[in-house]
Amino acid sequence: MDQPGNRVSAFDCDILRGAFIKSVIENNIPEDKWRAEASLLISNFTDCDDIDPELLEWIVRSSPLGTEKAQALGWRWGV
Length: 79
Known about the structure:
mainly alpha
């Protein structure tokens, strides 16, 4: 997940994934738009348009419950 000049720590990854999950739930973003949303978050955070595909894949992985079920249960992601 590290690229020269564009380092993202494990802590940063957790923050990005939490922000992504919160955004998906609060804005009711459909699954087919998740990659675009995650890409925008990563790009804004790193101030770089060159996005690590492994980081993008890790962030967009759905929750173990699935987003719809998590919303129905009122799941709070702590972000």
